[in-house]
Amino acid sequence: MTLLSFRELQRQLKPEWGRTTQAQGPDVDVLMVPSLSMDQRQIDLVTGAHHYEERQLFALMRLRDPGVRMVYTSSKPLGELVVDTVLELLPGLPTSHARRRLHLLDTDDASSRPLTAKLLERPALLARIAELLRPGRSFINCFVVSDLERQLSERLQVPLLGTDPALGYWGSKAGSRELFARCGVPHPPGSALTHSLDDLTEATADLWEAHPQLGKCVVKLNEGFGGEGNAALALAPLQLAELGAAGRRQRLRQALEQLPMPSPSWREQLGQQGALVEAWLEGGEELSSPSVQGTIHPGQPGHPGTVEMLSSHEQVLGGASGQTYQGCTFPAAAPYRQALMRHGQAVGEALAAEGALERYAVDFIARRFGDRWDLQAIEVNLRQGGTTHPYLALSAISGGCLDQASGSYHTPSGPQLHYRATDNLTAPELRGLLPVDLVDIVTEAGLHFDPAKLRGSVFHLLGCLSEYGKLGMTCIGRSAPEAAAVYAATEAELLRAAQVLGR
């Protein structure tokens, strides 16, 4: 039998297979591979990394359609309660019916290596997966598509709904800037890609000399994610204006050598993947970090895919650099939400023209000057991300949809919904708390999601809870203040109950 290449397999994808908010038709099999196939050095910075495979459990919403079957893979076995916590959110469907169409398979390997690498090392497991997937009626869905996922698609001879890793440049920092320029999307001044400390020093000097009022810049590894490959460099304390060109570069070189990059091996990565420098956007009376998320559905043969805008968010950033993703609120602020959607659509259409598929997101900085908001795009993510699973959770439990004109989300009966979400509710008191304890605490306090009231909390990363005292949650309400109140009440009750149980 002649084996098809990755691109030949992708031509088998059907336009409707990527649409999760409507019935997908009969007899569709979905292989979920929630692998964090990214730079291992940066993955090692994430606490409880392999538990992040649980975030894609909200993709079980596809099982709302009785014709959909799913194979969900993971590094270690998923707890029954962890899975049922998601399945029980599906409206109008018995959990037992969805369970019959769900197959859970794992590699029994808790190492931090990518799940896909573990799958490829287990031919017997791949054979069992292949037996569950019907040719011509199956596709693979992943968190991110790397060369590992390409290999998996070709080994199984099953098409993958995601961007070909050969197009990965468009999700890098340098590729993002090129896309923004092409689409006319505003973005900060910055440099081309550099691969040595000398060249990075020169690029930083050139940026300051072109913008001598710049008080700070940010150095970005070309393939960094979640802010873990970024570090800010304060320029004002260096008093560059007092120096000549040579002295300026010497001082910048010394500052870059001491750059507090989250990744300790960033100098090595600079040579391998490159880095660029970009203006740090300051000023204005208010500053925020919104993002917009879209998806590209497969097109007809010979035609680019169709772009659908999914959501806009305000990102909550933190960490040592102030740029590490901590959580989000949905939707983005009304004054610039429609502009976000327009810019996201333009970038999505450019990506579709290049052959990209499935999820993408664009991050921005928003600054308010009086009544005017200035939006600047800072990067494209060609993968699922921190804002993907909260939106999937909202869609799964409400059955609503996004109004493309306003960017607001409405249930079928009309009410608008908002949420606040996090992947990083962390506290020492939560260590030792089991998922069943969490369910008991939230239920007794009346903080679980109530479909009648359209408010409450849903949870993910339950596997991190006992060992790391870490949890993810999405807190939903009919307004932004109500969602924030649900978040605060849930956090407070969890910490209070955990302290009581720990005595």
Molecular structure report:
A hairpin with an 8-residue loop joins strand 9 and strand 10. The mean pLDDT is 91. The chain contains 16 helices and 18 strands. Strands 8, 9, 10, 11, 12, 13, 14, 15, 16, 17 and 18 form an eleven-stranded antiparallel sheet that branches. A four-stranded parallel sheet has the order 3-2-1-4. It has a three-stranded antiparallel sheet with strand order 6-5-7. It has 503 residues and is an alpha+beta fold. The chain is globular. It starts with 5 loop residues before the first helix and ends with a helix.
- Strand pairing plus helix content: what structural class? alpha+beta
Shape from CA axes?
globular
- Percent of residues in beta strands? 15-25%
Q: Count helical runs.
A: 16
Features:
about 500 residues, 16 helices, alpha+beta
Question: Topology, pairings included?
Answer:
Layout: H1 6-10, E1 28-33, H2 40-43, E2 68-74, H3 80-87, H4 95-100, E3 102-106, H5 115-120, H6 123-132, E4 138-142, H7 147-156, H8 173-183, H9 197-210, E5 216-221, E6 230-234, H10 245-257, H11 266-273, E7 275-279, E8 286-288, E9 290-297, E10 306-318, E11 324-330, H12 334-354, E12 358-369, E13 372-381, H13 388-398, E14 401-402, E15 409-410, E16 416-426, H14 435-444, E17 456-460, H15 465-468, E18 470-477, H16 480-502
Parallel strand pairs: 1-2, 1-4, 2-3
Antiparallel strand pairs: 5-6, 5-7, 8-12, 9-10, 9-12, 10-11, 11-16, 12-13, 14-15, 15-16, 16-18, 17-18
